[in-house]
Amino acid sequence: MSAEAILEQNQRAAVLAIGTANPANCVLQDEFPDWYFRVTRSEHDPKLKAKMKRICEKSGIRKRHFHHTEEMIGSHPELLDRALPSLSARLRITADALPELAAAAAEKAIAEWGRPATDITHLIFSTNSSGGVPGPDVRLAALLGLRPTMQRTALYLHGCSAGAAAFPVAKDLAENDDRARVLVVCAEAIVIGFGAPDEANPNGVVVNSLFGDGAGAVVIGAGPVAAVERPIFHMVSSSQATLPGTEPAVWVRLGESGLGYIVSAELPALVRGSIEKCLVDGVAPLGLAAGARGGWNSLFWAMHPGGRAILDSYEAALGLEPGKLAASRHVLGEYGNMLGATIIFVLDEVRRRRQGGDVGGDVDCEWGVMLALGPGLTVETMVLHAAGSRDEK
Ligand SMILES: CC(C)(COP(=O)(O)OP(=O)(O)OC[C@H]1O[C@@H](n2cnc3c(N)ncnc32)[C@H](O)[C@@H]1OP(=O)(O)O)[C@@H](O)C(=O)NCCC(=O)NCCSC(=O)CC(=O)O
Predict the structure, then answer these.
(1) How confident is the model over 337-363, as pLDDT tens digits?
(2) Are 305 and 356 in the same domain?
(3) Which residues of this protein are catalytic (predicted)?
(4) Residue 150 and residue 272 in one domain
């Protein structure tokens, strides 16, 4: 069925509101190696610090926000010594941090949505930074004043696709009942995996140079919208592909010393070699693939910015014109890679640029693709249609 035909159907879910939030503590990327090596008391290791400086310079990141501060790390020596168990301490810290951060983003989304928080029927909370039940979602629901009869779903440890993985779940819930209004919230506090540099694990230097904290929230609903509701993006179809044999490329694991996150140096090349086929499989049945309707450049893109080199790989593999990934590069620059929360920041930035008319041609693209990679290697894709860009004008 073509994308248009799907869109014509009643009950198509749409993003109705978006909110984002970050912790106040902000570290400029060009000051980060000094900050990190001081905070982790690792000044004795100039070689690794020089490597981190090289990575930070090439990261495309200007600043990042963190819940953890120098004082907090100073009062938790177990976070720096991998020989000491630290998971409980990390989970206690994030148990306090995540609901507040998530609520800050969700309150903005609910305010934009325009209906009372008690009209939310479902909450999907997704994070890599927690592991308990009852989890941060329960406190988040209380902070927001959601109904106790509202349905909660928690997703844990989906890596950088933690946000994108929640969208198809919300879409299905919304399309199953046109009265459903699903609040999706993704929040991350990377103190869950923060640690001192380790010569034996140069990947840790990369992860510590890229990841940051943030929360994103969206309200999703289908069917007839209330007078105050304003659809932003219609969610046309979703697809997920797991690339065979790529399990070692990205993995996330909770252990005694917190969250371990490995990203292979091969990842940018792997993305370059495989992404177009995944996209063709995911969107070609809708008639949106390269070659149709002007190719990949005729779409707008909301790519999760896993790292500068990942975005470069998308551009190279798909032949994207410079500027097509401007929203993703902007979010990477201002906040770093906030794991699952990032994709919601990118959607917000795509929306902002479309409304401001400053996207270098993307305003004219009514169809778009949201995409993020997660451990697996899993490619999460969602075809979007910008509300108001066609017969709704
Ligand atoms: C880290 C970078 C900014 C570095 O930039 P460049 O590649 O241009 O620079 P470069 O080749 O000179 O590399 C700088 C130094 O970093 C090292 N280096 C690079 N990638 C590494 C990795 N994954 N593990 C360990 N070391 C690594 C290089 O060997 C080099 O060391 P030396 O200087 O000693 O020789 C970039 O490679 C990047 O953006 N990589 C992608 C990061 C990533 O995988 N993110 C995805 C997370 S998962 C995710 O978020 C999913 C998703 O994307 O959707």
Answers:
(1) 999 999 999 999 999 999 887 655 577
(2) yes
(3) 160
(4) no
Report the atom number in ligand 1 closest to the C-alpha of 337.
50
Active site residue 160: yes
Q: Is 62 helix (H, G, I), strand (E, B) or coil?
A: coil
User: Does residue 393 register a pLDDT over 80?
Assistant: no
CB 122 within 8 A of CB 151: yes
Neighbour tally for 42: CB within 10 Å: 17
Which among 61, 310, 315, 371 is the best mutation to test ligand 1's pocket, defined by most ligand atoms within 8 Å of the CB? 310
Please state the domain count of the chain. 2
Distance from Cα 104 to the centre of ligand 1, integer Å:
32
Lowest mean pLDDT among 98-102, 260-264, 289-293: 289-293
Residue 363, judged by CB atoms within 10 A of its CB (0-12, 13-18, 19+), counts as: middle
DSSP 144-158: HT--TTSEEEEEE--
For ligand 1, what atom is nearest to the CA of residue 308?
39
- Cα(48) to centroid(ligand 1), Å: 14
Ligand 1 site residues (CB inside 6 A) read 51, 54-55, 58-59, 160, 202-203, 206, 250, 263-265, 267-268, 304, 306-310, 337, 372-373
Residue 374: inside a domain: yes
CA distance 263 to 252: 9
Residue 5 lies in a domain: no
Do 254 and 205 lie in a common domain? Answer: no
Q: ipTM of this model?
A: 0.98
Q: Specify the residue with its C-alpha closest to ligand 1, atom 25.
A: 203
Q: In 3D, which of 83, 325, 94 has the Cα closest to residue 213?
A: 94
Question: Tokens at residue 310, please?
Answer: 């990942």
- CATH number of the structural domain spanning residue 296: 3.40.47.10
Task: Give the model confidence (pLDDT) of 225-251 as tens digits.
Answer: 889 999 999 999 999 999 888 988 999
Cα 265 to middle of ligand 1, angstroms: 6
Full domain range(s) for residue 281: 232-386
Residue 390 has pLDDT above 60, yes or no: no
Range with lowest mean pLDDT among 17-31, 104-118, 181-195, 220-234: 220-234
